[in-house]
Amino acid sequence: MDTPSYHGERLSSTEKQAIRISYPGIAARLDRLPSGTWHRKVMFLFGGVVFCDCLDMYVGGGILAQLLQNGWSTVDLNAVFASITMIGYLLGALFAGYLGDRFGRRKSLLFSTMLFSVMTFLAAFAPTMETLIVMRGLMGVGLGGALPGSYGALSEYTPPLVRGRYASWLGLIGNFSPPLGALLTVLVIPIFGWQAIFIGISLISLLAWLILWRYLPESPRWLASKGRCAEANEIVLSAERSFLQQGIELPEIDYAALLKTTQQEPTKKANWLSLFSKRMVKQTIAISAALFAMNLMVYTITNWTPTIFVLRGMDTTMSIGITVVMLLGAPFGIFLLSIFADKHDRKKGLIICLFLLAIFAYVWSLIPMDNIFALMSVGFIVCAILYYYAILACSVYLGEGFPTEIRLRGSGFAHAIGRLAGIISPYAIAFLLQSYGAPAVFLTNGTVLIVLAIIIGFCGEETRGKSLEEINASTSSE
């Protein structure tokens, strides 16, 4: 089949080919593809990894509640468990960010997923809480690399006008796991114990790794940015042909504009310091603040809600059951995001969500334990707002905010900063919870959210509807 036509008839075929396989040419050809099967395949491949990783995260609260109730753990050890997980996430995000920018998105994701799968299986056989805590930290390294690797890389495959929708769908796939994870803790833990949860997740993630290894193509943008233009061209040609075989005509690309871009294309040396260059530092701060807020609230809700209920006199089964209903708000909130992600500004959406979350979470903490309906309904609203915000931040906004040559470093760094919330907050939450009760926890969290919303407002760059290269031009270092 002939290569699709382009503007630029005055150029020779050799000149056209050189432009076609340059980085700007590869990016433009990817952006002109209509939304279709090729994009959905890539999204589901990333989605399988995200689903397994998120499932592991959201069983943590139920497992900790049981370990607390049966005397295998304490509130303080639960806090250490949560913090060591965050330390693993932090280290994994930084390491995988380097791997992804240095060796490729695909290799980094395969490494992180395999590490997570193996360590999750081994953790099931931990003989003591202290050993489980150590194994959890190693699991966290794999988790910490896989999530930013998936969320950060998807934007490189998808067109600008539907990029938010695909990122939202990726988040929706992954975050069907909160209610499922909570439900599994209700059904599996009482019969088979918490070890069965870890073994099952390990086997599922191994299957996801095998499918990923077989079918995921490397990011053409990354390949082109490394000078591996022939490989990038083959992947893009394959995608183009898949549309042409369906009778779908592809828009032409203006060769003159691409030629000008190619001639002006700078040679960049990517490193960690690039994130703090004069024109990148504000965006780095904004995205890091957004992910700090996300982790603060996600881990407060998912890891501490069952424990809060138990400490207030509710039995473990009832506490997990209410948590299941609350977490049904997660896929609902992300479904709403998939509708509105490409219709409203990213930055405004983040700020509004943080203010709403601060208010509703505090109100929820004031509800008496005997008002089950109010606990579930307001909790559902809190989770819907939280996960609308979380996926807007970590899947949509994160993947758009950094240039290709440092995209996974930027994603990894922002995730690492976000993980600090998970490292610091468990000790603060344990202290506030035992000394002053749940309202003090959510009043403190709400204050932090409002401060972070202001930071995002001052530092964040709006990215909706722009090509990645257009965003890069306004934020990357000179």
Could you describe the 3D structure shown?
This protein has 478 residues and is mostly helical. It has a single domain, classed as MFS general substrate transporter like domains (Growth Hormone, Chain: A, Up-down Bundle), CATH 1.20.1250.20. It has helices at residues 13-20, 23-31, 37-58, 60-69, 75-103, 105-123, 129-154, 163-174, 177-187, 189-192, 194-215, 220-225, 229-244, 255-264, 281-311, 316-327, 329-340, 346-365, 372-400, 407-435, 438-459, 468-475. Helix 3 crosses helix 9 and helix 18 packs antiparallel against helix 21 (438-459). The longest helix has 31 residues, at 281-311. The two termini are 41 Å apart.
Please outline what is shown here.
By secondary structure, the protein is mainly alpha-helical.
Total count of helical runs of at least 4 residues: 22
The CATH superfamily title: MFS general substrate transporter like domains
Task: Round the mean pLDDT to the nearest integer and report it.
Answer: 84
Count the domains.
1
- Rg calc: 23 Å
Quantity of strands, as a count:
0
What is the fold-level CATH name, i.e. the topology?
Growth Hormone, Chain: A
Largest sheet: none
Distance between the termini: 41 Å
Query: What's the overall geometry?
Result: globular
> In CATH terms, what is the architecture?
Up-down Bundle
Flag low-confidence runs: 1-6, 263-267
